[in-house]
Amino acid sequence: MNSRHGSETFSIEGEGVVNTQLGGRRGDEPDPITEPEARPVAPADARTAAAPFRFSRVGPRGRAVPEPLSLALAKAMTKGGGGRGDVPAGYTYLGQFIDHDLTMDATDVSLGEDITPAELLQGRSPTLDLDSLYGAGPANAGSAKFYAADGEHLRTGDTIRIGPDREKAGHDLPRVGTGSRRERRRALIPDPRNDENLIVAQTHLAMIRFHNRVVDKLPASVPAAQRFRRARKTVTLHYHWLIRHDYLPRIVDPAIVDDVFANGRKLVDPAPAPTEMPRMPVEFSVAAFRLGHSMVRPVYDWNRRFPKGIGFLDYMFQFSALGGDLGGEERLLSNWLADWRRMYDFPAGGHPALAPPDEVNMAQRIDTLLTDPLKNLPPSTFGGGAGIPFDDRRRNLAFRNLVRSSMLRLASGQQMVDALRAAGVAVPPLSRRQIVQGSGGAKLDGLTDRQKDALVERTPLWFYVLREAETGDGRMRRVGGRIVAETFHRAMEGSRFSLLRNPGFHPAHGRGDAFEMTDLLFFAFAGRRAGINPLGGA
Q1: What percent of the chain has pLDDT over 90?
Q2: What's the rounded Cα separation, in Å, for the pair 242 and 230?
Q3: Which residues have C-beta within 8 Å of that of residue 530, sequence separation ≥ 6?
Q4: Assigned fold of 7-532
Q5: What is the pTM for the complete model shown?
Q6: Helices (H) and strands (E) in the chain — how many of each?
Q7: Domain boundaries in the chain?
């Protein structure tokens, strides 16, 4: 997968390698308007040809959606508004971190003459191995730069003092620090996408801190040669536990999650060979797991310097190095550090002393409405040039999602209902009223009667699964919930260290079997308020 969202390459089983380019395109790439179907592209080199990142279809091939319908839907979806959800806002960006882990091409940081075909296949398969955090490990020449001199701890970076907010050691991502100003500020992490916005960047930093604390807590009796592997296994199993018991039940109907993890999969690789690596369903990557886009808020009560009404979403891009330019600096300014008390509910997680001064930021409800800033993505986030004007459809995230789905001929929501029924899962379809009117989501008054008829007959899958959520309790359910839960289950099953192969595992760094994101942060920062809220104050 590319490090930016403008061009995504999909190697779909049985169909070859195709590219979807949306904005900032080069002359040899398709335009979504004049060339509305993704087309094959030549692999970059023999290694890519041997083992590209693998996608599959778990549903049938669909039809293209007329561009005027995609644009009309996108405009309706980015009107702003939408209901407040019941999920703390930090989970939006935990989801983005997880997404990057699932689609991380680990071979990008480990390719060399000595890499084996098995390693190529492993490195380009969707698993939950935290490759975006670890790369290929400290023993690999291409990944050693991510680690401290001891080969056990991951590197961190320091922030820059500004006014009363002093330099904070270990509170920024490590940065390259050499070359041009742009190169110096680049994050020294395996997946540069995790510095696309400030919230996911600080989430990545928290994961680094969690790993480093796990290393610190290893018994002295663990031999030096085994310490990194032991730490990585511990971190990965805690991460899987958190996904299974904390993250997924917040965004997917818990009954679906429980059924999949207890009884197995029906749709996504239901009976793979023991040695077969997972593949990424395009229905998940291009539709169902784009649920997080609807959870994004227009503003965040970020910290004491940028409280409610001042922490605009645009700033979250600006004060990163991939989505922005760190405000013109080479490292993060101290006044932009996360106050995690505002992004996660620590009192509900058993830490009442870490209540925020006001209420916790809650994500927007999962529905068919996106906050209006997502109508105008910064061109830097998708490789677009500065010349793309405001309100241009290429900057509209909803339009980009819908057109990419159309280019890949993604199955419609109705086709996926049929596919699930054929697999033995009883899924009631949405009614015409639910599709057209929804429940507090996008208003489709701007669509013609003919467009509404076309939408009801073949609903774009992304829109369909978001309508499912909003006509329920704001969690993914039916089609969308099943795709998400089964894809996560398969990704865990194929991981190097897997919760599914360690049924006796229980978290060691939480509150008994309760291990949520608040517990991860509490442990990562050694329970110190100064780590969880580094700017201090109420």
Answers
A1: 78
A2: 18
A3: 536
A4: Myeloperoxidase, subunit C (1.10.640)
A5: 0.92
A6: 20, 9
A7: 7-532
